[in-house]
Design brief:
Blueprint (H helix, E strand, L loop, with lengths): L1 H30 L2 E2 L9 E2 L17 H32 L5 H13 L6 H11 L5 H25 L3 H9 L4 H9 L4 H17 L2 H6 L8 H10 L6 H27 L9
Antiparallel strand pairs: 1-2
Helix pairs in contact: 2-5, 2-8, 3-5, 5-8, 6-7, 8-11, 10-11
C-alpha cells in the first residue's frame, strides 16, 4: 500500500502524458469516418468517402495495395536479413576467439551511431554503378547494412548470457558445433531474436529517406513515400484523405504491437540464466 502511494506521482504524470495522445488518435480515427463543417469540432455525418483510395487509385498515384506490398517486402526482407546475419555473427563474436574482437565491436557500435544521411550521396552513386538504383533490392541492402551493427551487438549480448555448460554438454554428446548452436543455443536467445525482428521490421516500415531518395519510382514506392506525396500535392490536397492513409499506414504497426507485446515485455524471461 505504501509503495503504491509513493508511486502515485509517477502514475499521475504518465496518465497526464498518455491521455492527450490517446485522445489525438481517437479523434484521428473518428475524423476519417465522418464529415464536419469547416472550423467545427463535432462531425455532422458518417462517411466512407475518405477511404476511397482502397478501391480506386488516386490520380497521379500508384495503387495503395501495390505500395503496401512493396512496404511489406521491404520491411520483411530487412527483418529476415538482419536476423540471419546478426544471429550468426553475434554467436561468432560471443563464442569464437576472433582476432581484434574488441576493436571490431567498438567499430560496429560506431557504425550504428554514424548518421546515414551523411552517406546518402555515396550510396546513391554506388547503387547507380551497380544498376540497383530505383529498385527495392538496392534499398533493402542499404537498410539492412545500416541496421546490422546494432543487431549484431544486441545478439552478442544475448549469447553472452547463455552458459557455456549447455554447449559443452552437446559437444560431449557428439553433436556438431552447428547442431549445438541451432538446437541448444538459439532457443535460449529467442527473446532477443523476437525483439530484434520486431524493431528491424518497424525500422523498415517507418523508413522514409532511403526509399524516397534511392527508389523514387511509383512502382517501387513504399507507404512512407506515398503518404508524403499526398502532402506535396498542393493542387489536390485532401486532409481527410491524408489522415485516412496515415491511419491505414499505422494499422499493421498496431497489430504487430498487440501480437508481440507480451514477448517484448518479458524479453529476458525466455533464456537460461548463467
Amino acid at each position: 500500500m505504501s509503495n503504491n502511494f509513493r508511486n502515485w506521482p509517477i502514475l499521475t504524470a504518465l496518465t497526464l502524458a498518455t491521455v492527450p495522445i490517446l485522445l489525438m488518435y481517437a479523434y484521428l480515427f473518428l475524423d476519417t469516418f465522418t464529415n464536419k463543417e469547416p472550423g467545427a469540432l463535432i462531425p455532422n455525418s458518417f462517411t466512407l468517402e475518405h477511404w476511397h483510395f482502397l478501391v480506386e487509385d488516386i490520380e497521379g498515384k500508384g495503387s495503395i495495395w501495390v505500395v503496401t506490398l512493396n512496404t511489406f517486402i521491404f520491411a520483411g526482407s530487412v527483418m529476415l536479413m538482419v536476423l540471419s546475419v546478426s544471429s550468426t555473427a553475434g554467436y561468432a563474436l560471443s563464442r569464437l576467439n576472433i582476432p581484434f574482437r574488441k576493436e571490431f565491436l567498438v567499430g560496429v557500435l560506431m557504425l550504428h551511431a554514424f548518421p546515414s544521411i551523411t552517406l546518402i550521396i555515396s550510396i546513391f552513386l554506388i547503387l547507380q554503378m551497380l544498376g540497383l538504383y530505383n529498385t527495392l533490392i538496392g534499398v533493402i541492402i542499404i537498410m539492412t547494412s545500416l541496421q546490422l551493427p546494432l543487431g549484431i551487438w544486441i545478439m552478442k549480448g544475448f549469447y553472452d548470457s547463455v552458459p557455456w555448460e549447455i554447449e559443452m554438454a552437446g559437444l560431449q554428446d557428439g553433436a556438431s558445433r552447428f547442431t549445438v548452436w541451432y538446437r541448444l543455443v538459439l532457443p535460449q536467445v529467442r527473446p532477443g531474436m523476437v525483439a530484434l525482428g520486431v524493431f528491424s521490421f518497424l525500422a523498415g516500415w517507418s523508413e522514409y529517406i532511403l526509399p524516397t531518395v534511392l527508389a523514387p519510382a511509383n512502382d517501387v514506392q513504399v507507404l512512407s513515400g506515398y503518404l508524403a506525396s499526398l502532402i506535396a500535392d498542393d493542387q489536390h490536397f485532401d486532409f481527410n484523405l491524408f489522415k485516412s492513409v496515415g491511419l491505414f499506414y499505422a494499422i499493421p504497426v498496431i497489430i504487430l504491437y498487440l501480437f508481440f507485446q507480451d514477448r517484448l515485455m518479458n524479453i529476458y524471461g525466455g533464456g537460461t540464466k548463467g
